[in-house]
Design a protein that fits this description.
This protein is mostly helical. It contains six helices and no strands. The radius of gyration is 18 Å and the shape is elongated. The chain has one domain. 38% of the residues are buried. Helix 4 runs antiparallel to helix 5. The longest helix is centred in the last third of the chain and has 41 residues.
């Protein structure tokens, strides 16, 4: 069951409805209670904190990068609203589209020039893609650690 959760966490990097780092962490949680002390409680807490950090970072990274790329406050708010609505309306692809459309609407409301609007859109896209890559790295590392622990138990 823990291995299934690890793979679900990996899939969740691309399907936003699955909170990937936290789903992967539940694989460790199951391993903790089903193994003969192969992982410590301290390890479980540290990996939980890492999971929560990356889970929250996935929401805030597009907002931060949009701001770093020159987005106005309205553009950042639009990015956040677009992320949320895009996910629920269009699913996984809606996150990128929603962030871009939200940033665009926010920047148009701020009367920004077209060059600055493109920077804001680029920031939103960079943030979304960075979040996916970071979640993927964490999920892969968790999977390798999990597999190493399983090999240690059975071989």
């Amino acid at each position: 069951m823990g291995l299934i959760l690890m793979f679900l966490g990996l899939i969740g990097c691309f399907i936003p409805i699955i909170p990937s780092p936290i789903t992967s962490w539940f694989g460790f949680f199951i391993l903790y209670f089903s193994s003969n002390n192969i992982i410590s409680f301290k390890f479980l807490i540290y990996t939980l904190l890492i999971s929560i950090l990356f889970f929250l970072g996935d929401f805030f990274l597009p907002l931060i990068t949009a701001k770093k790329f020159g987005s106005s406050k309205k553009g950042v708010v639009g990015t956040g609203i677009g992320l949320f609505l895009g996910f629920f309306i269009l699913g996984p692809i809606g996150i990128i589209l929603g962030a871009c459309i939200g940033a665009l609407i926010g920047e148009l409301m701020s009367n920004k020039e077209s060059e600055k609007i493109l920077g804001s859109l680029g920031g939103a896209i960079v943030g979304v893609l960075s979040g996916i890559i970071l979640k993927l790295v964490v999920s892969i590392v968790f999977l390798f650690i999990y597999l190493e622990k399983i090999v240690r138990i059975y071989f």
